[in-house]
Each structure stands twice: as C-alpha cells, then as structure tokens.
Amino acid sequence: MANQKKTRNQNISKIRKLRKEEVSVDSLIEGIRQSDKASLARAITLVESSNPEHLEQAEQLIVKSLALNSNSIRIGITGVPGVGKSSFIEVFGKTLTLSGKKVAVLAVDPTSALSKGSILGDKTRMEELSKDPLAFIRPSPSGESLGGVARKTRESIILCEAAGYDVILVETVGVGQSEIAVHSMVDFFLLLKLSGAGDELQGIKRGIMEMADGIAINKADGNNVERAKLAQAEFARALHLYPPKENGWVPKVFCCSAVENTGINTLWELIQDFTKTMKTNGHFERNRKLQNKNWFLQTVDEQIKVYFHSKKSFVEAQEEMLKAIEENKISPYHAARKLLDGLKEQLK
Ligand code: GDP
Prior knowledge:
This protein is of the alpha/beta class. It has 14 helices and seven strands. It has three domains: 1-68, Single alpha-helices involved in coiled-coils or other helix-helix interfaces, CATH 1.20.5.170; 69-281, P-loop containing nucleotide triphosphate hydrolases (Rossmann fold, 3-Layer(aba) Sandwich), CATH 3.40.50; 292-347, Orthogonal Bundle (Helix Hairpins), CATH 1.10.287. The N and C termini lie far apart (62 Å).
C-alpha cells in the first residue's frame, strides 16, 4: 500500500516536471530572440524530436525563426578523422568570438545513430570554445538516415540564425554522402587536408574537390611546413584542371596550423572576400534559394515515400510482388511497373 502510494506520488511529480518543462513556442522564440542559449538548445531538441506531438511546435518555431532577419554566413568543414577539425574549429571559433562575432558549431555525423560513440564525439572537443559566452556548440543529431540528420541540422541552422549567431560552422566526418548533405546547406565549403608523402590527390573522395571553395592544409607546423607547402602547390595545380565554377569563384588553397594559430586569419579573410564577391554578383542569394528549392523537393520525395510505405494496401501489394519475384513469376522491373500502375489508377 505504502509502495503504491509512493509510486503514484513519483508519477505525479514526473508529470508535473514534464508539464513544467513544456514551454510554449512563443516563450521559446522570445528566448531565442534574446539569444538565450537554454531556449535555443530546447528549441533544437524540439526540432530533433521524433515525437509527432512536437512536430507542430517545431514547425511553428521554424516559421517564426525564419521571420527574424539574419545576416549569417554558413560554413561547412570536412576532413578525415584526425585531420584536426575540432582543434581548427576551436581556434577559428575563438578568433571570431574575440572579434565580437557569435559562432554556432553544428555537426552532421550519420554514424551517431549506428555506433554509440559517434566519430564526432563531443566530450573533450573544443574545450575553450564551449565555455565562450559567444559560442554555441551542439553535437550531431542522431537519426536513422542521413536525410533525417540533415533535415534536423538545416532547421537548427535557422534557429541559431534567429538567435543572432553570425557564423554557423557545420562540421562533418565525410562518411557516405554526408559531405554532399553539408555542402547543400552552407554558403562556403572548406576541406581540411594533411600533407602526405607527395601523393596528396590519391585517396581523395570523388567530387569533393569540385565542392570545395577553400582547401586548408592543416598541421603546417614544425617539420611539416615544407611538405605542407608542396601539398598546397599540388592542390592548387589540381584545382586549375577543374572547369570554372558557375559563380565565378576560384577555390583557394592555403596552409594553416591549429596548434600555432597560423593561417586562420587567411581563412577568415578568404571567407569575407568570398561573401562580398558572391553578394555582389548575386550568387549568394541565388545559391540559398536553390538550396531551399532542393530542400523542398527532397522533402516532398521523402514524404511521398513515407506516405506510401505507411499504407497497408501498398505494403501488401509490395509483398505480393516480392513473392512473385521470388517465384520467378515476374521480372523486377515489370513488378515495379505493375505496382506503380496500380497506384496511378488509384490517384486518378
Ligand atoms: P579531428 O578528428 O579532425 O577533429 O582532429 P582533432 O582536432 O581531434 O586532432 C587530431 C590530432 O591532431 C590531435 O592530437 C591534435 O592535437 C592534432 N592536431 C590538430 N591540429 C593540429 C595542428 O595544426 N598541428 C599539429 N601539429 N597537430 C594538430
């Protein structure tokens, strides 16, 4: 009896706590507007939530956040584990906050759902920056798919911008297609590289050079300076072989050291030059609009898939086709056609 009472009291207090934790969209927006980190963190949690009840609130938050003007620059940063991303972001971020800029660091790590310890673990990373009142750091959202993680990150960018963050850094490990996802949500894409034994271009992922607006050869310090310079020259030569970018930007290669804090100002000058040029020639705005349109199309595609896969009749028809394929009664292409023709009939 006493135990039952205790459990009931515990439940009541849990419910009370939950209620207390429920904050209205308006008060969250007000907090975000005042750049309150706790409100921003809570808003991001809502956007990341897979609870259908939070969906409506998350949508309202995004709509209201979009209405708050922002003049941010979104920078994507990629490089293999160990290249020095977190050290680099720490130093770069501190340089920016020292000049009064507000910096948000987000991450896209599609492995975080698979392995408990994600590649971009956030424990001891960016120790200084995480204590900086002008900086906001958020680890990668988890999700079953890269699409899900990317959506959440895109929406978090909007929330950070509404909270007045001037520079949004989106870090990725470059697993699978994550670089493409990050490239599609930023203005400037930075590739961090190490100097090797003169075979710098080997092992570089296809398509990554075309995406980069800047390449930083990191760890250009100590005995490594000469090798880093050679790597810089090799990358610069290789970049010349690519057709010019539509926006007229010629990607730049530079050396830097997160440990010695060199080359960091070069990067910031480069990004400012990029932003100025792109804003003058109209490509800054055009690129963001294009990204928004692609985001819309991608969302429609995803939602169509989700919709049909949630329909019992669709799942059953699919099962039937799979069985027919198993029994060699139909070719895969024909089966797909038949299934989709049936759908088209229903939609008429
Ligand atoms: P991440 O996995 O890409 O985030 O790389 P980390 O920032 O964790 O760095 C990996 C290792 O490289 C750490 O031991 C760092 O101290 C070291 N490191 C990072 N940047 C530099 C640099 O500019 N110079 C040197 N010498 N070491 C660095």
